[in-house]
Design goal:
By secondary structure, the protein is α+β, with helices and mostly antiparallel strands. It is built from 5 helices and 18 strands. The chain binds 3-methylcatechol (MBD) and fe (iii) ion (FE). This is VOC domain-containing protein.
Length: about 290
């Protein structure tokens, strides 16, 4: 086991107050702190899972992946360097902000910043912004992230070195493109790639423990006037029931529950689905309306 989990993410946004309203009022996250430049958000006992950085260019900033030891960090650095992806050492300011002990920074084949670390501060008290049954995280990590890429093979090779293996594929008819879903723990996918004309972040998914909280999140998103980009639906491959909203960073967030897990690697069959969902998820990737 080289990596354990997707542990934190960083995003850029022009309006931190808007992110705060969205994260607390719709998603149920706790604000750890907010300055003129940054907003940090808690989902569980980890110090923070989301960091929002004030920037003129909204979008994805970085993903943070948990590695067991410094020896593992060195081994992965060697392998990625050999593949043509050298590491930069994280600065002390970066380690301090992220609340991690050791940090290595890479750039994936799509130009996305990837951070490998160990020793994220944990054991913090979590008080959700609204009463609900909590986020499903722990050994499964914070959720999943998805990139569109024009270089599927190179991206799969890079993330393959990190220990991600293919769960399944979906051919998505409305966009005539294949998506690849990958896992590194029992979560069906922590990472996915969608073939497309450019390298750009597509969406992040976070999971809650109860269907009621997905329904409540959907209502709260509508009440806040957030754009629901894909209606409530149930995915074919991971069986997650979810909906998607536009975030203040200009990409989508999927809010769901009920994901199935991959418990036994030996018995797992890699298949290709021909639709993203059993029902619902009306939007650009399925039955556009
Ligand atoms: C997902 O999580 C997803 O976002 C899509 C588009 C298809 C299957 C599972
Ligand atoms: Fe998803």
């Amino acid at each position: 086991m080289s990596l354990h989990t997707l542990s934190y993410v960083g995003f850029n946004a022009t309006d931190l107050d808007d992110w705060r309203q969205y994260a607390t009022g719709v998603l149920g996250m706790q604000v750890v702190d907010q300055t003129a430049d940054t907003l940090r958000l808690r989902m569980d006992e980890k110090h923070h899972r989301f960091a929002i950085h004030k920037s003129a260019a909204p979008g994805f900033a970085y993903s943070g992946w948990d590695v067991a030891t410094r020896a593992e960090l060195d081994r992965l650095t060697t392998e990625l360097t050999a593949l043509g992806y050298p590491a930069a050492e994280g600065t002390e300011a970066e380690r301090t902000f992220r609340k991690v002990v050791d940090l290595r920074v890479f750039t994936d084949p799509g130009g996305n910043r990837v951070e490998l670390f160990y020793g994220q501060l944990s054991g913090c008290p979590f008080t959700p912004a609204r009463q609900f049954g909590g986020f499903k995280t722990g050994e499964l990590g914070l959720g999943h992230i998805v990139f569109m890429t024009k270089n599927m093979d190179a991206m799969m090779a890079f993330y393959g070195v990190l220990g991600l293996t293919v769960s399944d594929y979906i051919f998505i008819k409305p966009v005539q493109s294949r998506a690849c879903f990958m896992h590194l723990n029992a979560r069906h996918h922590s990472f996915a790639l969608l073939g497309g004309p450019q390298d750009v972040f597509h969406h992040i998914m976070i999971e809650v423990n109860s269907l009621d909280d997905v329904g409540m999140g959907n209502e709260l998103a509508l009440r806040q006037g957030r754009k629901v980009t894909m209606s409530l639906g149930k995915h074919t491959n991971d069986e997650v029931v979810s909906f998607y909203t536009m975030t203040p960073s200009g990409f989508e967030l999927e809010y769901g529950c009920g994901g199935r897990t991959i418990e036994n690697e030996e018995d797992w069959q890699v298949v290709e689905y021909d639709d993203i969902s059993f029902w619902g998820h009306l939007g650009p990737l399925r039955a556009p309306v």
